[in-house]
Amino acid sequence: MSNTLPVGALLERAYAQTPNLPIERCYIGRDAAAQLGGFSAKRCGNSCLVISDAHTHAVGKSALDALRANGKEISEHIFDESHLDATAELGDRVAEIGINADFFVAIGSGTLCDLAKHAGTKLKRPALSFATAASMNGYTSGITAVKLRGLKRTVPCTPTLAVFADPEIVAAAPPRMAAAGVADYLSKCSAGADWRVANILRGEYYDENALRFYEGALDRVLETTSRVGTGDPEAVAIALEALLLSGLSMLVAGSSAPASGGEHLISHYIDMKQALYGTPNDLHGVQVGVATVHCLQLWEKVLALSPDSIHPDLLADAQPTNEQIEQWAIEDWGADVAAEVITQWKQKARPRDVLRAEIAAFRDQLPQIREAVSKDLLPSTTVANAIRESGGPTAPEGMNAPIEEYRNALTRARYIRNRFTVLDLAAELGVQ
Ligand SMILES: [Zn+2]
Fold it and tell me: What is the extent of the structural domain holding 260?
């Protein structure tokens, strides 16, 4: 039934229900370029810096034409790097190139959008996005993913002022990109459960309003994944709409927590290792998808525990010491980055007696926790099938990443960020 809604209807509903979203317009349609031009005429100044890469420049020509048709003075920067990386330095460079521009336009996907957001934030000027792939949820987020002091971090930024996407262009992107997007979207199943339990067990901030952005979208994505796999424009547009809503949920929550949990830490760990080796990353969503299947399996094991089998004293005693963790961090990252990792970890580490109480609270509230996270979780097999149908890998062998680092990430990624996730919960409960 949800499939009968036109693409864009869920975004319209989200906008109707949520006044004053900082992203003024999210538009998916064949006339996206004209809509971008019209929007820029009303809301932006005269001159713009358009950033793209060789591929997105070619497919996004309609956006440039529309800006010109609306009298904009365009300067362009076309990146030729095949593996562009969103770093703060590169974002600063975009700001320098666009120092005289009234606004920025990114024709591209995650990295280019992040660079435009970074530059726009730095210069306090608007950034618009002309999306060319349904590959991740960052088009509408208020964060950029950058490497900072060796850590993969999400840094707050001003979100784009508007996002436009033409389904035909988005569906023509390399198929692995849309599969990555489906996986990035579905990661919210595990991430949402992580977020909820961080609230239940640790009293961390939680905002039920963020969930509103998922109503109806999840079913539509699950119904259309096999068509995503064949590059069907409507199915890819449905995935993109879900991703735009996912980004909005993070904006409303003021945190990436609704869509970024343990599975994102695993992906970030691999990215950090690739940065150390100087080797290129796989797509964010591809890594996140493989890790999501793992995290959902962890959730299944954690929730299947019998309270009688949970012994808080024994489990608390079995946790690695801070000295051990510091040693691992130095092995993994070298002394400088390890210091950053340890800072993150110490914000989340708990003394033994508190940990013991946390494990006991989990044991005592297990029925309520099962009930609560059932609103977020999907079976790991359902998510794996959806990713597979959309054309993405669900096992680590399918990623372009060193498999031994993926395996290390399963136990060590939890140390790189202060966010409490199923990776912590499972480790505390002795579940692997
Ligand atoms: Zn993501």
Answer: 208-230+239-428
The answer to whether residue 149 scores a pLDDT higher than 80 is no
Residues 263 and 372 in one domain: yes
Residue 307 Cα to ligand 1 midpoint, Å, equals 33
For residue 376, give the nearest of 193, 247, 198, 216 by alpha carbon. Answer: 193
Its pTM surpasses 0.90: yes
pLDDT at 1: 42
Please identify which residue in the block is written with the tokens 């080796």: 277
H helices of 230-348, in order, are 233-253, 262-277, 284-303, 312-317, 322-348
Distance 93 CA to ligand 1 centre (A): 24
Q: For the domain that residue 76 is a member of, what is the CATH number?
A: 3.40.50.1970
For 38, the 3-state DSSP assignment is helix
For range 38-48, the mean pLDDT: 97
193, two tokens: 């459960």
Q: How many A from CA of 114 to the centre of ligand 1?
A: 13
Q: Is 18 in a helix, a strand, or coil?
A: coil
The burial of 250, by beta-carbon neighbours within 10 Å (0-12 exposed, 13-18 middle, 19 or more buried), is given as buried
> How many whole angstroms from 20 Cα to the centroid of ligand 1?
24
Ligand 1 centroid – CA 318 distance (Å): 32
Q: Give the model confidence (pLDDT) of 370-426 as tens digits.
A: 999 999 999 999 999 999 999 999 999 999 999 999 999 999 999 999 999 999 999
Report if residue 402 sits inside a domain. Answer: yes
CA of 265 to the centre of ligand 1 (A): 10
- pLDDT tens track for 224-234: 999 999 999 99
